[in-house]
């Protein structure tokens, strides 16, 4: 698609990937409705992008009905034709040590919010002559990875939803795209995650690299775009020969557990005679 004068809703706009994506889209000539939890970072981003690039900012919790309604209202008013779902949480830790609230929040933000936002915005998008939805997933939406059980499950949901919705809308003018970043250097990648990735030799992309991929998916109308050649190969192997990936990850399990275990549990274990 031609991004010049495209009118785009971008969620998670103040985050690392979101703000980088906003910059790339603005540079391409798109007009943006920026959404995130808090107004202050949205205001700073809007100043950085300039008034010609920003149609509106919406501070809203998209996991709630009121937040989604506010964003849908702004989208309808600004006649948007593209939705980019880039908001997300990345809870890292052993599943048994995570709270029910942490697990539930991961699903609310990563899976339920984009699904319900698509549901709410589709009546707006179908009014346009051409419309697009980009759901930002993860490599872990194709590979269940220890230490990221809840996160992986939520991203598997996003990938499955994107695939199903794409097929459901195949005879319409609404196109659905799925972009799967690998490990990325944002605030969501905590020191523990970065230390584990370094020990395992996992490459990490910059937010700008992911943003460029999102723009590429739109421009080239790519149905799915997975970042990182090793990750793409690993995802294919996992789909065809999951037992091979099981064995590979089992060899890494000690490293993962050491970094994923919560500091409180580690302190307790260290003090136990």
How would you portray this structure in words?
- The structure is a single chain.
- By secondary structure, the chain is of the alpha/beta class.
- The chain has one domain: NAD(P)-binding Rossmann-like Domain (Rossmann fold).
- About 55% of the residues lie in helices and about 15% in strands.
- It is built from ten helices and seven strands.
- The protein has helices spanning about 15-25, 40-50, 65-75, 100-125, 150-170, 190-200, 205-220, 230-240, 240-260, 265-270, and strands at about 5-10, 30-35, 55-60, 80-85, 130-135, 175-180, 225.
- A seven-stranded parallel beta sheet has the order 3-2-1-4-5-6-7, sandwiched between helices.
- Strand 1 (about 5-10), helix 1 (about 15-25) and strand 2 form a beta-alpha-beta unit.
- Helix 3 packs parallel to helix 4 (about 100-125), helix 4 packs parallel to helix 5 and helix 6 (about 190-200) crosses helix 9 (about 240-260).
- The longest helix is centred in the middle third of the chain and has 26 residues, at about 100-125.
- It is globular.
- The protein starts with 6 loop residues before the first strand and ends with a helix.
- Residues about 265-273 have low confidence and may be disordered.
């Amino acid at each position: 698609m031609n991004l010049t004068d495209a009118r785009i809703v971008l969620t998670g706009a103040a985050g690392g990937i979101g703000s980088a994506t906003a910059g790339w889209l603005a540079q391409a000539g798109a007009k943006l409705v920026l959404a995130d939890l808090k107004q202050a970072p949205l205001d700073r981003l809007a100043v950085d992008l300039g008034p010609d690039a920003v149609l509106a900012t919406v501070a809203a919790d998209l996991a709630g009905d009121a937040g989604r309604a506010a964003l849908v209202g702004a989208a309808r008013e600004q006649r948007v034709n593209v939705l980019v779902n880039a908001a997300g949480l990345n809870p890292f830790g052993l599943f048994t040590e995570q709270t029910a609230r942490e697990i539930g929040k991961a699903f609310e933000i990563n899976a339920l919010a984009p699904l319900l936002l698509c549901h709410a915005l589709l009546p707006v998008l179908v009014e346009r002559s051409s419309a697009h939805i980009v759901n930002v997933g993860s490599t872990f939406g194709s590979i269940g990875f220890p230490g990221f059980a809840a996160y992986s499950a939520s991203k598997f949901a996003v990938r499955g939803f994107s695939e199903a919705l794409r097929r459901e809308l195949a005879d319409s003018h609404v196109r659905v795209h799925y972009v799967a970043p690998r490990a990325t250097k944002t605030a969501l990648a905590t020191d523990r995650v970065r230390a584990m990735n370094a020990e395992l030799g996992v490459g990490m992309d910059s937010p700008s690299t992911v943003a460029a991929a999102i723009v590429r998916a739109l421009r080239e109308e790519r149905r799915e775009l997975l970042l990182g050649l090793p990750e793409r190969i690993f995802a294919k192997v996992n789909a065809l020969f999951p037992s091979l990936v099981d064995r590979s990850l089992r060899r890494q399990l000690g490293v993962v557990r050491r970094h994923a275990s919560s500091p409180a549990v580690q302190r307790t274990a260290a003090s136990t005679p």
